[in-house]
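Quick start: read one record
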Amino acid sequence: LVSRDYPIHLGKRTHKQTFKRRAPRAISAIRAFAVQAMGTKDVRVDTKLNKHIWATGIRAPPCRVRVRLSRRRNEDEEAEEKLYTLAQLVEVSSFKGLQTENADE
């Protein structure tokens, strides 16, 4: 239904965190950001995005990441929510001057 590309500054969300909590905290920060931006409680993190966060280990997740948040209809009929959000990685060369953009599916 709706897709947008967001730059997320993970550095400020994992600042002053214990080393062993940084990558898990970054994933939960992406989830919390998606809940606030898209308004759905069900957020699914794509495996490529998860691997990108964890690529440099638990202690050093990337400082910034560009994420495509897509609000989609739930296929499961018994789900309590009709919509869910899928968070996918958008690879960029530089984060200079990036803003939120509507993405074409």
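Helices lie at 11-14, 22-38, 47-54.
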